């Protein structure tokens, strides 16, 4: 029978913590490596067999000292050890102890208590651990993500593993990378459109094996059930729009040209009419044109 538990969180102010199931002991090893079992991460929600023994160790740095032979500076640490058993209703605290020297955390006292509990709850086989919900274990210093190799600032990543073998990854997902238009989506096979809001796509890191980058439509685009527009279709649609807009502009240009020609014709006709009227009025006797001057000359001759 299995039960769902939440791994106890690290003690506030601790400078180093670890937690694991205990199914036996090893002949060699130091610290948590002297125990057989599965490593656990503080805050994770996991499934374990009922009766599983779980130990947590929280180390706190209280000062610094120097090795009397080598002169190497080292941290002086205390340790808080707690041992639990997994029950159907959760974790049950069986034993806890504060050690002034962290090196004693997995010493004879702790090993004796673990042996007693293992005798009461002997494991019937492997103690498989299934993680239901993972909690973040922030990295204490900047490191490269084990998947995408991008630098992860301190406190923003997630520690995987324990001890010197621990690595860092981006919390939950790696930052996406931009895509190249025309690249097929891994999920639906339709070529993607870079920078398009309605069919946005990106390269995502798939955390399988050694990791791989895949081009995918954005999660809000249900490309597997509702086919999005492809890059080629978008280009055809845009080309058709460009042709239509160019036709509209040409038609507008021609209409404007015809309108301007008609306006020029009307202006020319008006000017011609005004000129004709002006010329006609200038030579007509009733309008006081050139014949008037001749009549005055005849009148002077008559008077003479």
What does it look like?
This protein is of the alpha+beta class and 304 residues long. It is 26% helix and 30% strand. The N and C termini lie far apart (152 Å). It contains 3 helices and 16 strands. A 5-stranded antiparallel sheet has the order 5-2-7-8-9, with helices on one face. Strands 1-6-10 form a 3-stranded antiparallel sheet, with no helix packed on it. Strands 3-4 form a two-stranded antiparallel ribbon. The chain has helices at 108-120, 231-283, 290-303; strands at residues 2-6, 16-22, 24-25, 35-36, 39-40, 45-49, 53-66, 73-87, 90-99, 130-133, 143-144, 151-152, 157-160, 167-170, 201-206, 212-217. It is elongated, with a radius of gyration of 45 Å.
* Regions with little confidence, pLDDT below 50 for 5+ residues: none
Strand arrangement across the biggest beta sheet: 5-2-7-8-9
Order of helices and strands: EEEEEEEEEHEEEEEEEHH
Count of DSSP H/I helices: 3
Overall pLDDT confidence: 87
Structural category is alpha+beta
Strand percentage, roughly? Answer: 25-35%
Query: How big is the Rg?
Result: 45 Å
| Tertiary shape | elongated
Question: How many individual β-strands?
Answer: 16
Major sheet summary line: 5 strands, antiparallel
Measure the end-to-end span.
Answer: 152 Å
User: How helical, in percent, are the residues?
Assistant: 25-40%
Short description:
This protein is an alpha+beta fold and 304 residues long.
Can you give keywords for this protein?
three-stranded antiparallel beta sheet, alpha+beta, five-stranded antiparallel beta sheet
């Amino acid at each position: 029978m299995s039960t769902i538990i939440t791994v106890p969180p690290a003690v506030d102010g601790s400078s180093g913590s670890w937690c694991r199931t205990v199914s036996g002991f090893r002949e060699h090893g130091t610290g948590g490596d002297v125990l057989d079992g599965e490593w656990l991460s503080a805050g994770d929600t996991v499934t374990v067999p009922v009766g599983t023994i779980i130990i947590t160790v929280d180390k706190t740095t209280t000062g610094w000292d120097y090795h009397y032979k080598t002169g190497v500076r080292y941290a002086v640490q205390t340790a808080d050890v707690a041992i639990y058993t997994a029950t159907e209703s959760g974790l049950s605290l069986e034993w806890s102890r504060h050690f002034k020297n962290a090196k004693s955390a997995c010493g004879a006292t702790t090993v004796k208590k673990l042996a007693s509990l293992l005798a009461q709850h002997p494991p019937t086989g492997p103690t498989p651990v299934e993680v239901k919900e993972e909690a973040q274990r922030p990295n204490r210093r900047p490191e490269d993500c084990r998947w995408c190799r991008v630098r992860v600032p301190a406190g923003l990543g997630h520690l995987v593993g324990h001890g010197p073998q621990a690595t860092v990854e981006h919390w939950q997902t790696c930052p996406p990378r931009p895509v190249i238009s025309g690249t097929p989506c891994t999920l639906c096979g339709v070529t993607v459109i870079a920078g398009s809001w309605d069919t946005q796509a990106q390269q995502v890191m798939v955390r399988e094996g050694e990791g791989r980058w895949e081009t995918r439509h954005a999660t809000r685009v249900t490309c597997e059930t509702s086919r999005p527009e492809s890059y080629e279709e978008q280009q055809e649609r845009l080309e058709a729009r460009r042709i239509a807009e160019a036709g509209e502009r040409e038609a507008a240009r021609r209409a404007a040209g015809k309108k301007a020609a008609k306006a020029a014709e009307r202006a020319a006709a008006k000017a011609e009419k005004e000129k004709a009227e002006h010329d006609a009025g200038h030579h007509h006797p009733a309008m006081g044109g050139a014949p008037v001057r001749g009549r005055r000359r005849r009148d002077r001759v008559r008077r003479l």
